[in-house]
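Hello,

Our lab assistant flagged a job as stuck in the queue for most of the afternoon. It eventually completed. Since we weren't sure the result was trustworthy after the delay, we are filing this so someone can double-check. Below is the sequence as submitted and the structure that was eventually returned. Let us know if re-running is recommended.
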Amino acid sequence: MYINKAMVYGNLTRDPEARVLPSGGQVCSFSIATNRVYKKADGSKQEQAEFHNIVVFGRQAETCAQYLKKGSAAYVEGRLQTRSWDKDGQKQYRTEIVAERVQFGPRGAGAGSGGYERAESPTIDASEAPQRAPKEDAIEYPEEDINPEDIPF
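-- returned structure --
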């Protein structure tokens, strides 16, 4: 059995580029930077960055192009693939991760958040909170605390 699996979590180094294939399918490409911190033999800390090229297809490509921006955090699972082509008589290679799953990271008020900022929400006392009518299929949870010793397992 052979395994070709790549998992990376990092920040986008550029805005995603969305394109439409001749077949009509969507494709989105972007790059993610990951870093690792390690100690050198002399005891000093060293930081090393790696850059990963990501390609996403289909509906997920549209979603990535819409919501991800430079600096956004993302978790990508996929497979490694190396493409080659000739450019000016020289063979060119590009290794990329063909994403099967992309999960967006937290969106903060920092750089690269796409202009999204967290608004301070005022604290509301429970007596001031609006009362909602319960849904017919909603689960009603008990209001008293549950004692772990009462659980049969």
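-- support follow-up --
The delay was a queue issue, not a problem with the job. The result is valid. The beta strands are 6-12, 17-20, 26-39, 45-57, 73-87, 90-104. The chain has one helix and six strands.
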